Amino acid sequence: MDIYGYFYREFVDPSDPSTNLIASDRDSSGYGQFRITVDLKFEQIYVLLVTTYRTHVTGDFFIIAFGEGSIEFVSIMPSTSRPLPTTSSLKF
């Protein structure tokens, strides 16, 4: 599965996807996998948008984050689907 990653500060503006965009990548990890390396600020909200190259292609993927402190991931489905938020926290 060929996936893209887009990393935003605070929110994604669908009418202007470059607003708040910090980094994006498609294939830095090879085999169609993205890699984004950023320094995060304490108590700042970030959005990682993950999508596929081809329309209607879906599949499982995982995210690896590491560093000092802790991070909380909240999964949100697009508004075109029924939202199924899930939360997980990692401690480093």
Low-pLDDT runs of 5+ residues are 81-92
Tell me how many strands there are: 5
* Mean residue pLDDT: 82
Major sheet description: 3 strands, antiparallel
Structural class: mainly beta
Strands across the major sheet, in which order?
2-1-3
Q: How many domains make up the coordinates?
A: 1
Tell me the span between the first and last alpha carbons.
29 Å
Number of discrete helical segments: 0
Proportion in β-strands? 25-35%
Query: Looking at the structure, what is the overall shape?
Result: globular
Helix/strand order: EEEEE
Radius of gyration computed on alpha carbons: 14 Å
What's the helical proportion of residues?
A: under 10%
Written account of the structure:
This protein starts with a strand and ends with a strand. Strands 2-1-3 form a 3-stranded antiparallel sheet, with no helix packed on it. It has a two-stranded antiparallel sheet with strand order 4-5. With 92 residues, the protein is an all-beta fold. The protein has strands spanning 3-9, 21-25, 46-52, 70-75, 86-91. 0% of the residues lie in helices and 34% in strands.
